[in-house]
## 1
Amino acid sequence: MAKTKSNHNKHRKKDAGNWSNADHEHRMATRIASLQKKRERKQRALLEQEEQNEEQLQPLDDDKPPAAKKPKHEQPLHQKRSKNYRNKHARLAQHVPEHTYKHTHLAHDGYEQIESSKLRLATSQIQRQVTALKERLEEWDPVEEAELAEAAAEGAVDETSMEHKLKLHAEHRKEDAMARAKAQSEVVLLHAKHGVNSSFHRRKHNLKKHERPGPETWKLKGAARPAWEVYDFDTRYQDPHVKAHEDANARARRVKNIIRLCKGRFALDNDEMDEASDSSDGDNNNNNSKKLFPTPQPYCRKYLSLLTQLGSLQLERKNYSSARKDFLEVLELEGTNWPYSITNARNQLMNMYMSTNRPASARKLWERLDNDGSAWIRYSAALIEYVSWNLLQEEGSTAESAERLLAKAIRGNVYVAFFLGWPQMFEKAMEYTEELVERGDSPSGSILEAIEYGCCVNDDKGLGMWGGTDGSLEWVRSVILKVLNTSDDEGSDANAEDKLVKADLMSWESKLAKEEEEYERERNEKEDMKANEEVIESDNEESSNHEEEDEEEPDSLMYAGMFRTAMDWLQDAGEFLQAPSYDFISTEDNTDEKDEVDDMTANQTANEDGLDDGDDSGSGTDDSSESEE
């Protein structure tokens, strides 16, 4: 039985209880002490108030220094203030902006953690888009796509787009908030009109207001179901399942797998596809050949773009296996038989192989992309062949094979060769190259691609990869100087298809002038089009907003002028007249030149030592005998 303060048992004494007299005395003493402290505190406050009043009545002395503040441990208890750490999270949460996770906003993450989370979210978003578009291409229905195209032309919104889903989600949130506010206001009005405890707004009272549903709303089961729902004896009755089955069979006959049918032609338009089909018919010499299925654009190109973006994000996150898978899928869908590419997936894949030290995979890639004229592919092939020949000394790799690949790369983009041969000079001449390096979509063989490749400061691609290889830049310079210092008669004997010719190096002037003319022509055409649009739509504000949104293209004339300046500096300094270092050149083609250089060095040393002609001849015979041996 629980004890209480009072004594309910009659046989006990009246003064007996759960609390003893000692406890009662202790409580009384504590109470008296607290009252005494309270009384002293009031007296102290009155004394301080009187002192302040007296100080206000006394005249002020400017020379008197201000009273020093007492230290904290000497202050009275009522003046000490301890910091309040309660509700710290609630006070900090008040400063969090709307539509922001409080935990994320208040977290103390570093820059790397924040960037990694951004990359992860961007990767998941692109992955969802890739998955949705892939499912659509694998089950391509021409009839449904035609209906969607007509609806889009009429102004209908694509319900599968991410923008439409986000907009619809925002509208639903707004409607839900308005509905909750309306319901709350109705409840408040009902409470105000009928009272809080009234049953007017309750479900039981509301049900009495409505009529009872009739038999037409009943859902009977078993024997109670009507006969017309069970037996199909009505001629007007149509089974919805049979109709749906017929529609599904018709759709299955129409559906095409675009990824399987159009593999290798995802980047082609209808005109280019017709040319490809004509060329294939001409090669096969068969008039009854099957016509190729047309690639549905722009969905195929959009799929290639999304896959390339996904691979780039995976590469940035250092998920090399996933990035390789995405880039290889882009190569298969885009095809390797075309001389150009609308994506930079193959360039990024080659850079990934080079940076991760995968020479075998890189070799297979450039052998597969033999028709590609990009500097990223051809110069990477030359670098790998140089490493295999000069540094690793592998079987099958020779100086001739390395020079052959370098000559092929120079024919693709001659500007990169000078960037690699004299990087310090071009580093001084070229400016504003950061935008081009980060852009990554320059056309093959252009000066913009050369700047993007030759001005890259990263160690895992471009010039940084060449600079990290021993003797690679000196080898390129030696090959260029050997060709420039060779006469036209000597160079004409070489096979133009395999070996580098002086005309290949001197073609940079004509190519650069052609690029400048094309850039000026395109710029003039764009200016004329803008002028015509301004005349037609002078009062329309949307035209001006559209002009501001257009991305500015790089000025090719400015970069071409910088390249010309660097070449002039090299010519004035006599860099192209210097003798190459023959340590990096094959010995089979230049044995005669080496002998001449050896004779010249021997004669110079003999003259410096003051030797006689006989001694010189003797030394020459000794040298010749040694060389014969």
Note: The chain is about 65% helix and 0% strand.
## 2
Amino acid sequence: MKKLSGVFPALPTPFDAEGKVNAKALEALVKRNMLKGVDGFYVCGSTGESLLLSKEERKYVLDIVADTVGGAKPLICHIGCLSTADAVELARHAENKVAAVSSIPPIYFKYSYDEIKGYYYDLADSVGTGMILYNIPVLTGISFNDDNLADFFTDKRFVGLKHTSNDFFSMERARARFEEITIFNGYDELFIAGLSMGADGGIGSTYNIMPEKFVAMAGLMRKGEIQQARIIQSEANAVIKELVKIGIIPALKACLTLMGIDAGDARKPFGKVSQEQKEALVKNVLPLLEY
């Protein structure tokens, strides 16, 4: 498999007024991002509200994205579930549509490390597609770091790490030990920091409303133009700061709708973006975006 790299928007899942997946809006978002020069897509991750979707909805979302992309860009599908059997089912559905699958560790129950490791190996055993670990300890309470990554990356079926953490020491150690794997930076506001510590690219939610900024930063970092990349990172962070005030996923979807792609509301238990909050987005965010 060709090593993955570059800017991968973590796609949100648009919903229509009835709360169903809005295929037309999803197609429009994918096409817009492709025109902006992104390198691939991450489907049904945290931004995609994956744990709030049914298995059939998750399959449908991947099918829409795969059909829209038509093989022009690599896809990574998040297949993480509370149960191994459900995750295996999603992995098998994704196998022939994606460059790799990815999963958060099993959550809620306090599983032992051996049980967590077993979950990933069960997924790797179920398909021929490469596996990308999803490290997001702030939400899962489970950290992949220098102490345990060798348990996975000495097996060639594990091809990458999505590192959503500000522990850049662990990222650098992973890069130094496992040169062949793909490392994706996960925090949008720390994109160039991740690249400077060895990430091959990034996967992020706010890429969907300002893909050109992340594509530009990636290009500048490749050329060593760090100061110019910092300027663009600061511009992106001004947007991110406003979204965080509301909540990244609901605010992201509201922004997309204001920009002409009807993403609908985030699914409950997320709350709706109020009219006052929408007005704040119009005032403080939209002038900072290109659309």
Note: The chain has a mean pLDDT of 98.
## 3
Amino acid sequence: MSRPTVPTLLRMTTPTTWAGHTQGGEPFRRYMDRIPLAKPFWDEECEKAAIAALSSGRWVKGPQAKNFGEEFAKWCGAAAAVPCQSGSAALWAAMRLLGIGPGDEVIVPGMTFIATATSVSLVGATPIFADIEPDYWCICPDDVEAKITDKTKAVIGVHIFGQPFSSRLREICDKHGIALVEDAAQAHGASLNGIKAGAIG
């Protein structure tokens, strides 16, 4: 017996059953459980390093985190790197380090993970949404420049889906004297004009 496709399943649903399907009810859950979000890969060296970190009892601020930060910064070509528990926490920390708070505005892309905007809101500032480029889905430099006001303190550029955002963002931020924060969580290793994501901002 062949399985129905998702479009077929959608046609089979009615408004009364749709909520059950979208809330994880049958039949969608049965099919979605078979689609892995990611396929992790590690070698013996990675496995030994992970076991050593777990066995040390120092899961936070241990030597492994310090060493990783130094090596990662070197690999990216960045001045420094501080490991954080998540990209969301890193963005919040960047807002705090820049002294951004109530009354300030930060320009963010209109399409990205929610943490880009919420990191701004969490410090009391206002996220201003800029359009994205239709070909690359990264924040549009022209729209960013159009949205800069005297309240703008920073732009968060997101290297999305493995694609670096335009280097024009750096030029625009320098021109207006505002900070450029990079969200490179989705593009580690990607580069543009020989500069890796994470070393532009």
Note: The chain has a mean pLDDT of 86.
## 4
Amino acid sequence: MSTVIRMARRKDPYNVVQLTHEDIWDFKEVQSQSMKYNKIDINGTKINWLNIKWLRFMREDPDSVLFKYNFEEDFRKMKMTGSGERGRPIEKTKDLPRKYTGKQPISQAKKKDLLNLCKTKIISSKYHDFYKN
């Protein structure tokens, strides 16, 4: 599939980063400990969560999230921690658990479709062993 996405644009092809189940982290515990549902951005503008098209998380500013409603506009910023709120300070989680401990199963119908794509040579032969096993 990554080959199809890469080849979708001849000039300046897309850079595809393939992930495995080990690359997926479980943020649920961190979210429940340290994040709050924001209704306004840092400029005081109401956030319409259903219309957000792009979220960007920056390593340099882990307590904030940049977001866009469309791809042409500049990023807006929202704070994700309750800084300024009363109460005990929130303890930061250092070690994130992995979301999955093994490969995720797929349905029989999906496997059948993938094998059919192998059979019709839409999927390159170098990937056939992966899909058959």
Note: Residues 27-97 form one domain.
